[in-house]
Design brief:
- The protein is mainly beta.
- The chain contains three helices and eleven strands.
- The protein has helices at residues 19-22, 86-93, 176-180; strands at residues 10-13, 38-42, 50-58, 64-73, 76-81, 103-109, 131-135, 152-155, 160-162, 165-169, 172-173.
- The chain has a five-stranded antiparallel beta sheet, with no helix packed on it.
- β3 (50-58) and β4 (64-73) form a beta hairpin.
Length: 190
């Protein structure tokens, strides 16, 4: 999937608030949470294109959502399908309307101390390499969508590149030196 940030702010939560942070104009620059370690922001609401897929999550009330896949066109989540839970997902959004399925937020976890467990449907947003793509309301993040509904899609094994530089590969953070270097040649086995 690709999105356009449209010159919108990107926020970093490191769990601390300095004196400079406390003077920031935007509230999310004056906010910290624990456990910390998260980069997040919003994208231009009609910019998401491509495909969205994840293995395991829960809709409300513990209903499973497994093998989820959807297409993204002009920012909208379309053609929703899943091995389990597609109908319940669609029913949940029937009353929200199209703006509830408009991609508008993202986050990337940075905290190596937090671990996901995809089988148990435990996806802490701050876990290193954990990516969430969210639909619906993004006004607090600097976006234009003010709908009341939305969904955060957990993508545990994402690969993310920003302007051609990989920063997350298969759910693992990539260091700046690794991201800019060429792959090492494979060693010959004896």
């Amino acid at each position: 999937m690709t999105v356009d940030l449209a010159s919108r702010p990107v926020f970093a939560d490191d769990g601390s608030l300095s004196a400079a942070d406390q003077q920031e104009k935007l509230i999310l620059n004056r906010t910290a949470s624990l456990p910390d370690g998260l980069v997040y922001g919003t994208c231009q609401e009609t910019s998401a294109t491509g495909r969205l897929a994840f293995a395991n999550d829960e809709i409300s009330a513990g209903k499973p959502l497994k093998g989820f896949k959807a297409d993204l066109k002009n920012g909208q989540v379309e053609n929703v399908r899943a091995e389990v839970g597609a109908d319940a997902f669609k029913e949940g959004f029937a009353t929200v309307g199209a703006s509830g399925l408009q991609v508008g937020r993202f986050s990337i976890g940075l905290n190596p101390g937090m671990k996901i467990d995809d089988e148990k449907v435990y996806h802490p947003a701050s876990a290193a390499g954990m990516v969430f793509v969210s639909t619906g309301n993004n006004a607090l993040f600097g976006g234009q969508n003010k709908t009341l509904g939305g969904y955060s899609f957990p993508i545990a094994n994402a690969t993310v590149d920003v302007d051609g530089k990989v920063i997350v590969r298969n759910g693992q953070l990539v260091s700046p030196t690794i991201a800019s270097s060429k792959p090492a040649p494979k060693k010959k086995q004896k």
